[in-house]
Amino acid sequence: MSGSVALVGAGPGAADLLTLRAVRHLREADVILYDRLVSSEILSLAGVKPDLIDVGKLPGHAEEIQDRIHRLMVSYVRAGASVVRLKGGDPMVFGRVGEELARLSEEGIDATVVPGISSAIGLPALLGLPLTMRDVSSGFAVLTGQRTYGIADLGPYIAVDTLVVLMGVRHRTRLARGLIDAGRQGTQPVAFIEDGSTPVERIVVSHLGEVADDLVTVRSPAVWVIGDVVDIWSQRTNPTRRVPVLDPTQG
Description:
By secondary structure, the protein is α/β, with parallel strands linked by helices. The protein has two domains: 111 residues, Tetrapyrrole methylase, N-terminal domain (Cobalt-precorrin-4 Transmethylase, domain 1, 3-Layer(aba) Sandwich), CATH 3.40.1010; 119 residues, Methyltransferase, Cobalt-precorrin-4 Transmethylase, Domain 2 (2-Layer Sandwich). The chain has a five-stranded parallel β-sheet, with helices on both faces. A five-stranded mixed β-sheet has the order 6-7-10-8-9. Helix 6 links the parallel strand 6 and strand 7. It starts with a strand and ends in a 14-residue tail after the last helix.
């Protein structure tokens, strides 16, 4: 008997931002392999007593855990289980789905992909922070903060009006300094969105130079947005105060 596997996006944080298709897969799952940032509220949407397996990455063990994820998916599918691989945000944005699809294909297993709202787009949108804006920003790019960039690597991003950084809290100082060294202005405004779309959301507004000088305290998880759109948005919304967010547990 052969099972099935779906690679499902859990959205940016709040349970009510999941897609209907994602919820359907959760309710039909026998096994859910979930990432560290998936909340208990989201897991509570699952069906009757599925096996919940935490496969969140730990610093220094990412490759080992990724290999375990591959093995678990294959073994459960071959045992006839309906498997959901549940990832924060959208699975196709820095979610290593390409590797997982390749491994499943090697094993002769077809997979379904269920998109989710990426935190790169969804969290700024919830705050009314536009990534593009007429006469201000004609485009944006999304970077991972986990990579070590050289100046040549960052060069193509200097002319991009708006940058969004995911998984970039730990190495924020290094990345900010690299962007400045590559040619981006240190006066560029930056907004960090911590724990976005949750009741403990916090907004930190600063400048790229202050981030590079390690003057900005931010906790993970956080998305940061760099560009002039931040300045226009902050003048309109006064984000120095905590921005109210919807508690997904309330009706």
